[in-house]
Amino acid sequence: MLRAYRSSEVREAEKPLLEQGVPLMERASFAVATAAVRELRSRGHLVTGSQVLVLAGGGNNGADALYAGAYLAARGASVEIVRASDSVHAEALATAKESGCALVDSGKDGILKAARRAGLWIDGLAGIGVRPPLTEPLSSLVTLLEEERIAAPDEPIVIAVDCPTGIGVDDGALVGPVLTATVTVTMGAPKPGLIAPPASRVCGRVEVADIGLWFTGEPAVATLSGSDVADLLRVPGPTDHKYTRGVVLLGTGSDSFPGAAVLTVGGALGAGPGMVRLDSPEVAGLVLRRYPEVVTGLGRAQAVVLGSGVPATETERLKAPLDRALEEKYPVVLDAGALELVKTEYTDLPSTVVLTPHAGELAELLSARGEGITRQDVEAAPIRAVRLAATITGATIVLKGASDVIAGPDGPVYSQPARSHWRAVAGAGDVYAGLLGALLASAGEDLARSGRGYGKPALIAAAASWIHAEAAHSDGPIRAMDIVDGIPAAIASALHD
Ligand SMILES: NC(=O)C1=CN([C@@H]2O[C@H](COP(=O)(O)OP(=O)(O)OC[C@H]3O[C@@H](n4cnc5c(N)ncnc54)[C@H](O)[C@@H]3O)[C@@H](O)[C@H]2O)[C@@H](O)CC1
Ligand SMILES: Nc1ncnc2c1ncn2[C@@H]1O[C@H](COP(=O)(O)OP(=O)(O)O)[C@@H](O)[C@H]1O
Ligand SMILES: [K+]
Q1: Pick from 227, 174, 230: nearest CA to 202
Q2: ipTM here
Q3: Among 423, 432, 436, residue to substitute to test ligand 2 (most atoms within 8 Å of Cβ)
């Protein structure tokens, strides 16, 4: 599991070490320099003679970059420094100069010329001490460098120290200019913005440098790996039968969208529940032709999926199964049309109800609940949007997208990236809803007994996102049914991770 901690938690973790005089900055800058050497070598360059640009801001982040520059200069690199603040760390600057680094003329032309000369930039303009948007003069400098980076015929390697300058370190937001990185060398632990969208998209490869920090608390944001998923999966044993393995009931599909029933059933069956029930008479024939193992009609279940392929105007029939699940405290997935119910009637939900909107649906839901939020707002700061929605509704929220961002009213936010953007295809969300329902069903009795979720529904949803991403992994076009077909192998790969 990748565990990301906020800047305040990083500073807390640093405190005892700094009091003991542990040389954190030395460790940090050495990690940056080592990453720089590796990046140069992996592209066939020698350190000696390589042209490096150190972008040094006024904080400790700038000092890290300067010491890294000093190290590279001592190894024979030709290092130039852009001094982006009047208050650059004096000792670090002196060390860099002594090692042979040269200061660049700080006018626009001087900076651009130096940027063009250098094949590797070290971004020490701002670290975890900065809240975006950047203010002047840093804002213009970052804009200039990012434009140059994009326009350069040979794209420079950009090594971000701790985080790319300009990102929302703690919330993953992108507001204002940022300098996109090839590699981010982050100190001690990832920060939320390094693993959560949209900021995670400008971080390149994230490397965590062990500088001796120790974190014991709950992370702010986490990303599950295959082995975390394996820990959550209930593998059947000799005493299991279909009812102990979990029954999932689907109220999905309609005359308008019959295929959604096939896709949700396929997603559910792929996860291996004991039984899938379908309560959608108008599409039962279609589903049974493809999946004869499905049982039709209402009945007992340990989890319920409602709304995929059901128009928002036809949600009346979803209320009976929803009421029953709420009464019996079984987990529920509300997808697509069923989200309509949360706008007006079902306004206070337990966290065992999981809502699965895409960005547009989440914006609509939040707006209907009195928050003036657009799709663009959701996309610019997904962590904030899911947290807000979880607080307002009480439910667990899965914001579907290139990365799924998941939050309950408490516990960490999970950010689960896609393995391939070919996944963005109609019906992929229906497959997800069915898959999630089946996973919740296998935990349904436990969740019902606990009465509340205590973070577990979010964790299970994150596992569903991992499996879905793995099942949709592809180097070329895929259909939603290919994701269905990929689920059993994705689960097997988690179990063997
Ligand atoms: N604290 C420590 O002891 C350690 C910190 N380390 C490094 O130190 C960094 C944090 O250092 P700092 O706390 O000095 O913070 P930063 O280095 O992130 O920089 C803060 C600087 O940015 C300016 N600034 C703040 N908000 C701004 C905005 N919106 N627009 C433009 N400028 C803005 C401030 O005036 C200040 O000069 C970490 O990211 C990491 O790289 C490492 O050296 C390891 C040890
Ligand atoms: N850019 C992207 N890259 C990868 N996956 C994506 C991207 N955008 C969306 N997705 C995924 O595609 C699916 C789309 O779901 P949804 O919007 O509900 O569509 P539908 O209702 O047609 O199934 C979700 O699983 C989501 O995580
Ligand atoms: K930085």
Answers
A1: 174
A2: 0.87
A3: 423
Tell me the CATH number for domain 226-495.
3.40.1190.20
Going from the Cα of 20 to the center of ligand 3, the distance in angstroms, rounded, reads 26
Q: Computed from CA positions of residues 352, 353, 356, 357, in that sequence, does the dihedral angle turn out positive or negative?
A: negative
Asked if CATH classification 3.40.50.10260 holds for the domain at 2-219, the reply, yes or no, is: yes
For 2-43, how does the pLDDT look when each residue is reduced to its tens digit (9 = 90+)? 999 999 999 999 999 999 999 999 999 999 999 999 999 999
CA dist 247 and 260 (Å) reads 19
Tell me how far the alpha carbon of residue 178 lies from the centroid of ligand 3, in angstroms. 10
430 is in an annotated binding site: yes
Q: Where in the chain is the domain with CATH 3.40.1190.20?
A: 226-495
Note the pLDDT of residue 454. 67
Note whether 485 and 474 are within 8 A (CB).
Answer: no
Predicted pLDDT at 446: 79
All CATH 3.40.50.10260 domain ranges of the chain, comma separated, are: 2-219
CA distance 19 to 178: 33
